[in-house]
Amino acid sequence: MTAPQSLTIRLNAADNVVVSRAQLLPGTMIAEEGIASIEPIPTSHKIATQPIASGDAVRKYNQIIGFATKDIAVGAHVHLHNVAVRDFARDYDYCAEMRDTEFVAAPASFQGYSRANGRVGTRNYIGVLTSVNCSATVARYIADAFRGDDLGDFPNVDGVVALVHGTGCGMADSGDGYANLQRTLWGYARHPNFAGIVMVGLGCEVNQIDFLLEAYGIERGPMFRTMTIQDAGGTKRSVDRGVAMIREMLPEANRIARETLPVSHLTLALQCGGSDAYSGITANPSLGAAVDLLVRHGGTAILSETPEIYGAEHLLTRRAVSREVGEKLIERIHWWEAYTKRNGGEMNNNPSPGNKAGGLTTILEKSLGAAAKGGTTNLC
Which of 115, 146, 114, 138 has its CA nearest to residue 226? Predict the structure, then answer.
């Protein structure tokens, strides 16, 4: 006979909680732990396997995810009503777990697009960027003109896409917001998935196109065009001009064909969405295993969302290739702490109502699961 499936998941022998695999009613026996639930435990939530005194650490993944705000009995539900975040010392132990990557003897390849600057794309789009929210509608209309069969004569072009945002004016022309906007637009402008770019502005915005080009050394050319609605003479003329620019770009973009290229050109972006308590023990570690495989083939992964590794940063610093790299991560964590504080927030505000309903209690718990996406290879 098949043994009955366990009702809970223990992640580490040193943990004082386990994760429920099903909704548990009061009095439900958990044979593997030798305990019984003393109150309802929702699916994916935590149940105490030993007494946790008020002020003591709650441990999951053999890491601290919070501290008890009251005495927690064996078999009790462990969640928002009895756990909170507070400061505690972390041992960064820089580079202690760094190890040489075992690269594969024969790296894999993929079909990609080579760009003139040496970078490689997985798609071949023409992008319509906006310097300001005021030009978003025009950008969308330009891109919409190429939906359907309009690209039938250009089989190597995957499409025309508008990338818009909600800022660019009514803002200071310096500071974090302005710098982040310009850096993001620059990132799109040079992204290897774009064969060409049309950037559309209004004309009188704070985030002037010329300022962006000057700041990042971007030059106009046949495959990087710019325009403003005010110069063009209104919405319709701007749309017509943008469509004409892209039609001139399409033949050149279509000359680029996929070719066999090494996987070492790939960069994988990692980001969570809709996390619950199972994410850190299912999807995220699975993706981490894929990241390890990609790195062994010479590729790269980017663990984004720095606020969502808060509480797990000491695990990453141990894998840093140098103390300097590890300290850069900690500096960024401290930046986020200061940023949230001066804006009236705190790092533990990150978990959403959906995260909490799914069993995630604190940012520390969420981060430990989120960091699993990064696999086990070195932090560079």
Answer: 138
Local confidence pLDDT in tens for the 380 residues of the chain: 344 589 999 999 999 999 999 999 999 999 999 999 999 999 999 999 999 999 999 999 999 999 999 999 999 999 999 999 999 999 999 999 999 999 999 999 999 999 999 999 999 999 999 999 999 999 999 999 999 777 989 999 999 999 999 999 999 999 989 999 999 999 999 999 999 999 999 999 999 999 999 999 999 999 999 999 999 999 999 999 999 999 999 999 999 999 999 999 999 999 888 899 999 999 999 999 999 999 999 999 999 889 899 999 999 999 999 999 999 999 999 999 999 999 898 888 889 999 999 999 999 999 999 999 999 999 99
In CATH, the number for domain 8-84 is: 2.30.130.110
Q: What is the CATH number of domain 125-255?
A: 3.40.50
Domain ranges for the chain = 8-84, 125-255, 261-374
